[in-house]
Amino acid sequence: EEAEAMAMSQRGGGGGGGGGGGGGYVNIGEDPALDQFMEAYCEMLTKYEQELTKPFKEAMLFLSRIECQFKALTLLSSDSPSSACGDGVDRNGSSEEDIDVNNNLFIDPSAEDRELKGQLLRKYSGYLGSLRQEFLKKKKKGKLPKEARQQLLDWWTRHYKWPYPSESQKLALAESTGLDQKQINNWFINQRKRHWKPSEDMQFVVMD
């Protein structure tokens, strides 16, 4: 309604009613650009109304649930459940309403949290998965953990004359450092290229 009033004011200008010619009033369809703008403006207002209405309804629903829980607590703590719950009381003093209260009115907040988390995961699982893959790629490309690198350096120092670990030694290093064999192989290849020069009698047997 506000948008329609605005459209009328913009089309009407300062015309002052339907009398005499030259009042400046623009009929619908005479200014397509203005019509298109007002349609988009109305759609935007409708969208905002929907976005504002949804959390309000959710808040009202939550409030009604809380009120039900308080009423249930009042019924359970009442000294005369027959007056609070009507005539549905059996000989043992319990009632169908009490059973409904116990089973339906008490809402587990943790269950609602799990449901919300599930909805968020379903909505953003693809995006989170891509972020995780990107993080793992960057982690693999980055430096090795300090403790793992120190263990490799210790092995390097002990076997400096021939720093070519066997397959069994690579497995042992992988187990002790937590690295995979590809990381260990790459580390030794780079380490030999940068920090090791074989002696003359070993240059012909180096197969790196």
Automatic annotation (TrEMBL):
PROSITE patterns in the record: ELK, HOMEOBOX_1, HOMEOBOX_2
Gene3D superfamilies: Homeodomain-like (1.10.10.60)
Keywords: DNA-binding, Homeobox, Nucleus
GO cellular component: a single term: nucleus
Domain ELK, first and last residues per copy: 115-135
Signal peptide positions on this chain: none
Localization per record: Nucleus
Pfam family, one: KNOX2
GO molecular function: DNA binding; DNA-binding transcription factor activity, RNA polymerase II-specific
Protein name: Homeobox domain-containing protein
Organism: Opuntia streptacantha
Source lineage: Eukaryota, Viridiplantae, Streptophyta, Embryophyta, Tracheophyta
